[in-house]
Amino acid sequence: MRRPNFKGWASRELLHLSGEETLNLRRLALLAQGDVPRLWERLALYAVATGHVDRLRGFLYREDLIAELETLVIELQEADLDNPDICKTARLPPRFMKALQSYDTAYRKIDTRNESKRLRWERTVQLQREKGASNAQICRALGLDAGNTNAYLKHADIDRFSLEKASAIMKYLNTL
């Protein structure tokens, strides 16, 4: 799993929220001025991040959104949107801050998953010692690759297994 950059995250969010298949700025601007919740914030931030502010401004007909876009450009003119800590330092309206916090969450998701895997590894090694289960026994019972299992259990290489497989090993040892 890789960390997203802001442009990639915003692109996926725009496609998901709009139900569109391509990033047509004109179509997205029309939808954002309509009834699609949370689309405007991501579209405005995407335009600032990609330098498409002038194009987006040309597609807007609502004066309140044009004014918000201008404020956003001024506030984020020197900001690095790829840095998830921007949500801690930027002074934006709350709905834009929520969008930035969503990016922060997506950016830190890999850290959260790795921490969960590390905690599962600690508990798994403890259970393995208590139950006296060998790595080979675990591999046979769960149909796992011996090399990945050894790297995970002996050397704490948490990247060898997904969170789901790490959980499966821990559950298996709990049932012994």
Could you list some keywords that capture this structure?
single chain; 176 residues; mainly alpha; 72% helix; 10 helices; 2 domains
Following the backbone from N to C, one meets helices and strands in this order, namely HHHHHHHHHH
Overall pLDDT score = 92
Strand content: under 5%
Shape: elongated
Broad structural category: mainly alpha
Number of helices: 10
Cα-to-Cα separation, first versus last residue: 31 Å
Which regions are unreliable across 5 or more consecutive residues at pLDDT < 50?
Answer: none
Number of domains: 2
Estimate the helix proportion, in percent: over 70%
Could you characterize what this model shows?
With 176 residues, the chain is mostly helical. It folds into two domains: 6-107, no CATH class; 132-175. It is 72% helix and 0% strand. The chain contains ten helices and no strands. It has helices spanning 6-18, 25-32, 39-50, 53-59, 63-75, 86-89, 94-131, 135-142, 146-155, 163-175. Helix 1 runs antiparallel to helix 3 and helix 7 runs parallel beside helix 10 (163-175). The radius of gyration is 23 Å and the shape is elongated.
